[in-house]
Amino acid sequence: MTTEQGKLAPWQWSDAHWRQIVNQVRAGRALRPKAWPGGARCAVALSFDSDHDTTELRDGGDSIGRRSQGEYGYRQGVPRILDVLKKQGVKASFFVPAVVALLYPDEQRRVIAEGHEIGIHGWIHERNSELPPADERDLQMRSSEVLERITGVRPVGVRTPSWDFTPHTLAITKEMGLAYDSSLMGDVDCYELNMEGAPTGVVELPVEWIRDDAVYFNMNRFASLRPYTSPNDVFDIFKRELEGAYNDGGLFQLTMHPHISGHRSRIWILEELIRHAKGLGTVWFGTHAEIVDYVKGHAAA
Ligand SMILES: [Zn+2]
């Protein structure tokens, strides 16, 4: 980015300048396969971001009340989610900040022992765009090392905290040799990420705020933030996204948070969605890593 252009208002930029910005990270090759494993009509990628205490810690962390909601994620949220997944025989992906893994190593070992995946989710749920590039790189690498040390499994994917993605994030992910990122929203199906116009080999398994429980349920006592959607309506939105994926023969990806959805009045959404998916026909429930691995090998020509 040229500094002279950067001083101008966006409508004054040269074509070369805004093209350079847009091309930093861009969707490349589409990766929807012609068919899914076992003749499945669509793939279902369930994910749980075990942020726990870190959403409070990363902002300074002085509210014991809000931190206790993180403890709920560990004490009640994750166990309830794991019970549903076990009962339904479904595998999923958990994205875990390193600080959460250090606070609750037993939780991470149970997640792995029950056949699920753990991916990178920052150090303390930091906002990448506030960090110097060297710190972002250092934290993402250290986070991977902590997860591997605790679980014995090296992560193959990353979801940036708050899906905050800098012009340096993709280069770090590529340098680490990770198979995928799951923080961007350029499609409903997997795609390869291009960096400055060149394919990187890194697959994007896209997320969307629409398919994220936090958007509908988040609450802050001292701000005007209140839940605005009923659990029934949240289920209906997720169900329609799922049915659309089934009709398209594509991918349904969902993000939930243990401290948000792991409550008695909400956990049913997860189980009912899984039941509904099974009722549609043949669907494939895979971890994000499994789905990425499959689409890389079966991309439609
Ligand atoms: Zn998170």
User: What does the average pLDDT come to?
Assistant: 96
Number of helices: 13
Judging from the principal axes of the Cα atoms, what is the shape? globular
Weakly predicted, low-confidence segments: none
For the sheet with most strands, the description reads: 5 strands, mixed
- The radius of gyration is 19 Å
Helix content: 40-55%
List cofactors, ions and other ligands: zinc ion
Major sheet: order of its strands? 1-7-8-6-5
Terminal Cα span: 35 Å
β-strand number: 10
| Structural category | alpha/beta
**How much strand content do the residues show?**
15-25%
Order of helices and strands: HHEEHHEHHEHEHEEEHHEHHEH
Question: What structural keywords apply?
Answer:
single chain, 301 residues, alpha/beta, five-stranded mixed sheet, 13 helices, 10 strands, globular, binds zinc ion
